[in-house]
Design a protein that fits this description.
Layout (H helix, E strand, L loop, with lengths): L3 H30 L3 H27 L19 H28 L3 H31 L3 H11 L10
The structure holds MU-OXO-diiron (FEO).
MU-OXO-diiron binds next to helix 1, helix 2 and helix 3.
C-alpha cells in the first residue's frame, strides 16, 4: 500500500512523463514540417519512450493497490528558432525531469518506502542516459553547425534511431 504523499507524487510524475511525450511529439511534428525527417524520427521515438515511462509509473501505482489520478496535460511549445534551440530545450526539460525523479527518491527515503526507492532506481539510471544522449547531439550540432551540410548529416544520423522499449 502506498502512502498518500507517495501516491500523489507518482501521479504527478505520470503527468510529467505524459507532458514529455507531448512535448517531443510537438518537436517531431515541427521537424517533419521543415523537412528534417531524421530529427522527426528521433523525437517521435523519444515521445514513445516517454509513454513507456508514464506507463511504468502507472503500473506501479496499480500494483501497489493505489489510485490513478489523470489530470490535464499542458500544451507544449511548438515554435523553435533553430534545431539547436530545440535540443537545448530538450536538455533543459530532461534536467527538470531528472530533478523531479531525485525529489521522488528523497521523498521515498523520507517516508521509509524502500520498495518505491528501489523501483525509482531504474529512472535514476535512465535519466543519466537521457541527458547523455541529448548532450551528444548538442555536441555534434556545436561542432558541425546546425545549418547546411552539418544539419543534413545530423538529420541522416538521427534517422537510424529505432524504438526499443526501455522498460525492463
Ligand atoms: Fe521520462 Fe525523458 O524522461
Amino acid at each position: 500500500m502506498l502512502k498518500p504523499k507517495i501516491e500523489k507524487a507518482i501521479n504527478e510524475q505520470i503527468n510529467k512523463e505524459l507532458y514529455s511525450a507531448y512535448l517531443y511529439q510537438a518537436m517531431s511534428a515541427h521537424a517533419a514540417n521543415i523537412g528534417l525527417e531524421g530529427i522527426a524520427n528521433w523525437m517521435d521515438i523519444q515521445a514513445q519512450e516517454e509513454m513507456t515511462h508514464a506507463r511504468k509509473f502507472y503500473d506501479y501505482i496499480l500494483e501497489q493497490g493505489g489510485k490513478i489520478e489523470l489530470v490535464a496535460i499542458e500544451k507544449p511549445d511548438s515554435d523553435y528558432q533553430t534545431v539547436k534551440d530545440m535540443f537545448e530545450k530538450t536538455l533543459a526539460h530532461e534536467k527538470l525531469v531528472t530533478a523531479s525523479i531525485h525529489d521522488l527518491v528523497y521523498l521515498a527515503r523520507e517516508e521509509r518506502d524502500y520498495a518505491t526507492e528501489i523501483f525509482l532506481s531504474w529512472f535514476v539510471t535512465e535519466q543519466v542516459e537521457e541527458e547523455s544522449n541529448v548532450n551528444a547531439i548538442l555536441d555534434k550540432l556545436k561542432l558541425i553547425g546546425d545549418g547546411g551540410n552539418g544539419l543534413f548529416m545530423i538529420d541522416k544520423d538521427l534517422s537510424t534511431r529505432v524504438f526499443t522499449s526501455p522498460v525492463a
